[in-house]
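User: C-alpha cells for this one?
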Amino acid sequence: MYVKGPFATWVPKPLMLLLILIFLLPLIAVNGIYSSNMTDFSGAFSTYSEYISLANNATPIGMGVAGTLIMRVKMRFRSKEIIIVCSVLMACISYVIGTTDNILVVIAGSFFIGFFKMFAYMEMMLPVMFILSPTGERGRLYSMFYPLIIGTGQLSSFLMADLIFDSTWQAPYFVMSILMLVIAALSVIFQHNQRFSFKVPLYQVDWVSVILLAISAMLLNVGLTFMRQQGWFNSPFIIGSLVTSIVLLVAIIYRQKVLKHKLIKFELIIQKVNLRHALILLLLMGAYLASSSIFTQYTLNVLGYNNLINARLNLWMIPGIIVAGILAFQGFKNKWFVKYYIILGFTAFFVHTLMLYLMLQPQMNIEYLYLPMFLKGLGLGILYIGIWYYAMLDIQIDDMRTIIGVMIMVRTFVATALSSAVISWAAYQSQWQSLSDISLYLDMGAFTDGIGMYPATQINAMLDSYKIVLGDLCWLIVPILIFVMTHHYGHLNSRRIVFLRKIVRGNTVRGYKFSN
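Assistant:
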C-alpha cells in the first residue's frame, strides 16, 4: 500500500511539513544561471552575454523536456530513488559549473540541472498541491501555488545576490551543491521505500522523440539568443539553427502520429481552443517580461545600482504576487470571469511599463521604483495563474502530462527569448539613431572637451532608446485588450450570438431577453 506523501509513517506531521519546506525551497532556487550573477559570469568568462542567456534559457528547456517524462519516471522508480539521484546529480553539476572555465560546459550543465530539477521538484510539489487543495480544485490550487513558487524565486534571487556581493559569482553553486547533498541525506533518513503504483517499464518511452525535442529546443534557443548579435537573417548560422529546429519539430509531430504510446499529444493544441488561446497569451506576456532587460540596463548603467540593490528592488514584486493570489482565490471562489482577471494582469503590466516610460531620467530616488515593481509582481502573478488555469481547463490528467512540457517551454523560454531578441534589437537601433541625432547638434557648437561630453551623450541616447521601446510596449496593450475581450473563456452565451446575428441582419430584437 502506497503511503500518501513522500515520508515514512513514523515521521510526525509537523516534521513532515518542515521537511517539505526544507526540500522544496532549495529545489525551487537551484538553477544553472542565477540572475544575480549573470553580469559577473559574463565578465569572468570573458564571453558574450548571449552565451550566458543561452545557458539561462537551457534550464527551462531541460525542465520542459523532463515534463514529458515525469509520470512515467514516477511510476518506474520510488520517490526516494528519484530525490536522491536527482539531488546528487544536481550537486555534482552545480560544482562543475562553479569550477569550470568552459562556457559550453555551463550551457550543458544548465540544461541537465533543469532536467533533473523537474523530477525532484514534482516529488515535493505533489504533496504540497494536496495540502493546498485537498479536493483537487485547480482554481484554489493555482491561487496559492504560483504565489508560493514565484515569491520564493524572487526571495532566493535576493539571497543569492547578497551571497555574491560578499564573495564571488561562484558562491551560489557551492552553496547549492551542499544543499542538494543535504536533501539527499535527509531523503535517505526520512523517506519511505514504497512505490507510487505498480512498476511500469521505461521501454515504452519514445527516447528518439525526447532527444529530438531537446535538440530542436536548444537549436531554437541558439537562433533566438544570437539573432541580434549575428545580424538576424543575414547570418547562415541563424538561418541554419532556426530551420533545423523547425524541421526537427515537424519530425517529432509526424512521429507522434504513428506511435501507440505518444510522448506529446500535439493534436490537443488543435482540438482545444483554450490551449491555442493560452499559448498566444503566453507569447504576449513574454513581451512585457522581456522588458525587464530594459529596466536592468537602466538601473545598472544609468542609475549606477549594483546587482544586490536590483535584487532588493525586485523584492517589491512579492507583495504584488501575494495580492494576485488573494484576488485569484476570491475570484475562483465567487466564480468571477477569468477574462476580466486576465485583463487586470495585462493592465498591471501596462501601467508598470507606462510608469517607467514617464519616470526614466538620469537621476532618481529608488523609492519611486517601488510601485512599478509592485505592479509588475501583480501582473506576473495574475497572468501566471489566470493563463495556466484557462489553458488546463477541461483537460484530463493523462492529456495534461503529454502537453505540460511544451507549455512550460513556451511560457518560460520561447515567449521571453523571442521578445528579448526583438526588444534588444529595437533598443540597440534606437540608441544608434539617438546618438546620430544628438551628434547633429553637437557639430553646431564649439566644445573644448569633446571626449568629456561622451558619457552624458551616451546616457541621453540610452534613455531615449529606452523610452522608445517602452512607449511601443505601451501601445501593445491595445491589440491585447481587443484579443482578450473578443474571446469567451469558457463562458459562451449562444443567445447573445443569435441577437448579434439578428442586429447585423437588421432584424428587431425587441421583446427578447438579452441574458439567460
